[in-house]
Amino acid sequence: MTFDPGDLERSGRDGREGVVFRDKRRIDPVTGAVRQPQETAAPTSEPAPADESVDEPAAAPGASGSEAALAERTADLQRLQAEYVNYKRRVDRDRQVVKESAVASVLTGLLPVLDDIGRAREHGELTGGFKAVADSLERT
Fold this sequence. Notes:
Elements: H1 5-11, H2 47-122, H3 128-139
């Protein structure tokens, strides 16, 4: 589909677009600076009282908003601290369990060897260097 200026004339349009874009962002995306709000309404005969009444209600919601944000952050911090304390307790408990499990695993592996050494000692087959190794294993 191509644009034909004659179509606008035939449809009765004068060529102006119907969409108007107003950038209401508080921070300029290019410079990053805070923008001052532009007044679009006509100035009134008493601008000072109107400005004061507008500023005070705007400050109250902002203050309550910051207080709400502070309360939310405080609650998040307390929750994170509680999670950390629970994590430390769990790690300390698990560390002890892992230690006991490792000792049990090593002893389970050594018991058959110690049994074989005991049988060899009973039959008088422990001699030389093997006797020294067997003695050191039995001492530990």
